[in-house]
Design a protein that fits this description.
By secondary structure, this protein is of the alpha/beta class. The chain has helices at about 45-55, 70-80, 145-160, 170-180, 180-185, 195-205, 210-215, 255-270, 275-290; strands spanning about 5-10, 15-20, 35-40, 60-65, 80-90, 95-100, 105-110, 130-140, 165-170, 190-195, 220-225, 230-235, 240-245. Helix 1 (about 45-55) packs across helix 8 (about 255-270), helix 6 crosses helix 7 and helix 8 runs antiparallel to helix 9 (about 275-290). The radius of gyration is 18 Å and the shape is globular.
Length: about 300
């Protein structure tokens, strides 16, 4: 099987999202009216679903979930066109995120990583790379010792097999806790880094997006930085080589916009698109994602 015809394997987090959209500021010590939905999510799982939605013929997802919702998540992934490779954890519940979405569609997360960061080295096998053309690693797994060793092993074995690897840094807050240099060292060997602007600033200490993207591209062959509604930057070899605009939309919920970008970008790269064209595909998906509640494609039913 040729690389171009191969599968996308995502190793990442599977999360139960509780999305609360409040139209007024939060009122401390009392009630704030909100629209609340429980949805399947997780940066890795969302990206996998958007890759399938964007035309990637075979998408696989390795992640760890609790017995509390394993069947629900398995079904949701299959409906989205993703082949789930879920490890069930009998001791810890599935990761849960409460997303507080304000009237501007900006979100704040409360995160219980649960089973997601318990993905262990023994959950990984080099056989998972059979037929794989690209490997994508969710950055959340870099923030705990066991899951960090798991993704490091996956990255090394993919590199040895000549399979390109992409990494999404995932969270500026968690990057600050772990330390930028520890994260960058753990992600060494990846072909593509996919940070948003806040994550790039956290990793470099540079405020100017172009400067941060260029600096990161001295450590990774390709850096694609998302800028929210402003689009994306593409950098290689220490220089920004393209700036891509995002379609203008009216946002509802920004949860999962970066995951949508990642999934569509990777699907386009697998189909042979150059980095700038793939970033355009990512921007289109990201713009679509903010027009719906939750992080998954809008035409996939969220229920069991």
């Amino acid at each position: 099987m040729s690389r171009a015809a191969g599968a996308l394997l995502v190793v990442g987090d599977v999360v139960t999202d509780v999305v609360a959209r409040h139209r007024t500021p939060l009122a401390p010590a009392t009630d704030t009216a909100a629209e609340i939905r429980t949805l399947p999510g997780g940066a890795g799982a969302n990206a996998a679903c958007w890759a399938a939605r964007s035309g990637c013929e075979e998408v696989r997802l390795l992640g760890r979930v609790g017995t509390d919702s394993a069947v629900w998540h398995d079904r949701a992934l299959r409906r989205a066109g993703v082949r789930p490779l879920l490890v069930t954890d009998a001791e810890t519940a599935t990761a849960t995120v409460i997303a507080l979405v304000d009237p501007t569609a900006e979100r704040t997360f409360l995160t219980d990583s649960g089973a997601a960061l318990r993905l262990a080295p023994e959950d990984w096998s080099a056989r998972l790379l059979d037929g794989v053309a690209r490997l994508h690693l969710s950055g959340y797994l870099f923030f705990a010792a066991a899951s960090r060793e798991t993704v490091r092993r996956a990255l090394r074995e993919a590199g040895g097999a000549g399979i390109p690897v992409s990494v999404d840094p995932a969270s500026a807050g968690f990057l600050a806790e772990l330390g930028p240099e520890r994260f960058l060292a753990a992600a060494e060997g990846a072909e593509v880094l996919l940070p948003n602007v806040d994550e790039a600033r956290a990793l470099t200490g540079r405020d100017e997006p172009e400067v941060a993207a260029a600096e990161l591209s001295r450590r990774f062959p390709l850096v694609v930085m998302t800028l929210g509604a402003a689009g994306a930057l593409v950098a290689e070899g220490g220089a920004v080589i393209a700036r891509v605009e995002a379609p203008a939309v009216r946002p509802v919920d920004s949860t999962g916009a970066g995951d949508a970008f990642t999934g569509a970008f990777l699907a386009a790269r697998l189909a042979g698109a150059d980095p700038a064209k793939a970033a355009e595909a990512g921007c289109r998906a990201g713009s679509e994602a903010v027009t719906v509640v939750g992080g998954r494609p809008p035409d996939v039913p969220p229920g069991p």
